[in-house]
Write a structure and sequence with these properties.
By secondary structure, this protein is α+β, with helices and mostly antiparallel strands. It contains six helices and six strands, in the order αααααββαββββ. The protein folds into two domains: about 80 residues, no CATH class; about 110 residues, no CATH class.
Length: about 200
């Protein structure tokens, strides 16, 4: 392999990896990207194994093979992360599984980083609403704790997050040392704001 090609192939590796990280951070959230440091190490190790496996081939071929490995791993990672944060996937994992037939997800947002949280806004049939309360041991909130202003989430919440617009709202909460889950619904039990805050 000519010496002039090696810097270009290394640069190509870095560009593809950077593109994958950018897509994840923009579309999915930095919370999915941070644990990827371990995956990056594994990909680098796999690339080196690939180069050693083809040690009898030319240097150019080995670099191209490692580039293909990096490309495939990056694409697979992006596809997996995107699938893992689809609204229906998030609903099944955090709200209810299976999803009641009456549910229509209006908005969904997974937010990573320091304020790691999941926000869902959906409509649901009143007869299906009790199904949501079966996943966890929710406690109904009363008094000031049932004021939807308490659930606005500050600047970190998405723009559409507005449980304060519900008519005669009711609130339910499940709390552990690691997360707080709240359900806010209207008087007819057919509109829901659902949030999970990871502590």
């Amino acid at each position: 392999m000519k010496a002039g090609w090696r810097p270009l192939l290394i640069l190509a590796h870095l560009i593809i990896a950077a593109a994958g990280f950018y897509i994840l951070s923009e579309l999915i959230g930095i919370g999915i990207v941070c644990p990827g440091a371990i995956l990056v190490f594994m990909i680098a190790l796999l690339m080196e194994v690939t180069r050693r496996f083809f040690r009898d081939r030319g240097e150019t071929f080995r670099w191209l093979a490692s580039l293909v490995v990096l490309s495939v791993c990056t694409i697979a990672w992006v596809v997996w992360a995107f699938q893992a944060t689809r609204p229906t996937t998030l609903f099944r994992e955090y709200a209810a599984d299976p999803i009641p037939l009456s549910v229509r997800i209006i908005d969904a947002k997974y937010q990573g980083g320091a304020d790691d949280a999941l926000y869902l806004h959906f409509s649901i049939g009143a007869t299906d609403f009790p199904f949501l309360l079966k996943k966890r041991s929710y406690v109904e909130l009363h008094g000031d704790k049932a004021n939807p202003v308490q659930a606005l989430g500050g600047a970190s919440a998405p723009r559409w997050w507005s449980p304060d617009r519900l008519t005669e709202p009711s609130a339910y909460q499940f709390r552990t040392d690691h997360e707080i889950v709240e359900i806010w619904t209207n008087a007819d039990r057919n509109e829901v704001y659902f949030v999970v805050w990871h502590l």
